[in-house]
Specification:
Pfam families: FixH. InterPro entries: FixH (IPR008620), FixH_proteobacterial (IPR018037). This is FixH family protein. By secondary structure, the chain is an alpha+beta fold. It has a domain of 80 residues: Immunoglobulin-like (Sandwich). The chain has two helices and seven strands, in the order ααβββββββ. A seven-stranded antiparallel sheet has the order 1-2-5-4-3-6-7, with no helix packed on it. A hairpin with a 2-residue loop joins strand 6 and strand 7. The model has no long low-confidence stretch (mean pLDDT 87).
């Protein structure tokens, strides 16, 4: 037996329901994306991009001078989460600042002690998580700046 259904007419209520559902989805997605963006953004990269652009050529010059030193630097974490710096410049000393990439934790100042020729170890461990390490390594009046992400 074949049943025939009577088609219902498309009314203004149907159209209103479709519009309300569509805009509810759009608004829900926008609110979700905005909350995720605000929750994961920890601050600015530079406070004033114009001033940073004026310093850019100087930064390139400093980078070329640093590259001319020919130093090889590697930073890592040991098993106790102490930062270890291996370098081919024995007799160097270093200081560093560990920054949380999203700014959710305060910066940590780190001092290093030599543990072997060309090897420096932090005096304190880093807390768990991802950290951006900004290190300054000095020897013979010359500075080498390095940055490394450590997990």
């Amino acid at each position: 037996m074949i049943r025939h259904f009577k088609a219902r007419p498309f009314t203004g209520r149907h159209m209103a329901a479709i519009l309300v559902a569509f805009f509810a989805v759009v608004i829900a997605v926008n609110i979700t994306m905005a909350r995720l963006a605000i929750g994961s953004f920890g601050g600015t990269v530079v406070d004033n991009s114009y001033v940073a652009s004026q310093k850019f050529n100087g930064w390139l010059k400093d980078a070329a001078a640093q590259k001319a030193l020919g130093w090889s630097v590697a930073m890592s974490l040991d098993g106790q989460r102490h930062v270890v710096i291996d370098l081919d410049a024995p007799g160097a000393h270093a200081t560093a600042t560990a920054r949380h990439p999203l700014g959710r934790a305060p910066d940590i100042a780190i001092d290093f002690v030599p543990v072997a020729p060309g090897r420096l170890r932090a005096t304190r461990p880093l807390p768990a998580g991802r950290w951006l390490l900004h290190a300054t390594i000095s020897r013979d009046g010359r500075d080498f700046h390095a940055m490394e992400t450590l997990k």
